[in-house]
Design a protein that fits this description.
The protein is an alpha/beta fold. Helix content is 34%, strand content 24%. It has a domain at 15-92 and 178-186 and 209-258: 3-Layer(aba) Sandwich (Rossmann fold). A hairpin with a 2-residue loop joins β1 and β2.
Length: 258
Amino acid sequence: MTTQQAPPEKTDAETVIRTENVTKRFGGLVAVDSVDMHVDHGEIVGLIGPNGAGKSTLFNCITGTLPADEGHIHLRDEEITGWPEHRIAGAGLGRMFQQTRVYREMSVRENLIASAQRNNRFLAQFRRPDEATLDRADELLAYVDLDGLADVRAGRMSFGQQKLLEFAMALMADPEILLMDEPAGGINPSMIEQLLDYIRETNTEEDVTILLIEHNMDFVMEIADRIYALAHGERIAEGTPEEIQSDERVLDAYLGRE
């Protein structure tokens, strides 16, 4: 008689982002309080919580925008705690912001070219873009259905279109991991459906692991494989969308019962 073996546990080699006891303070305010979390290769992981829960601050610690006061941050097998932002970006971690950061006076195509040059060596920013960069820019514009606006000044587009442009700009660097801060915020419902498709395709076809903050609960419950919930800077829950929706600690945080 053979004994059935338990499935093997995931190894550290599959984990692309890991935080251990990450803490960030602003004076007497503890914005992020000893947060442990991990994101495995190929996952789409959601990060939720009420306003002021510490979600964006945790993102900023992971990307090097802010230094963590305590704890450790790992990107794949390497500790990146204290690394500058540009070095972390160069190691394969991309970032989208809650408020779009496009070059409003430049054309849509020029925005993509500029984002590619920004992620290259300093001198490359002053050279004419090569054919591969131009082709990749046109490919991504077609991917997010903005190719018809390639020569339009980015500041003339709607907020939703600018978010799609920033999404394409983030992909110009071919990130292995993409952090997205409220991708569905300010976007009309019809464009949200498109964005869901783009994120799924980027995750599966481009092999990009995704960690996203989102206040739109329908959006995050539909897209995420796993979800972490924060409240008052602390991690209060982790699980599948189904588990999170029925977690009393999460319901208390959102309904103000804690």
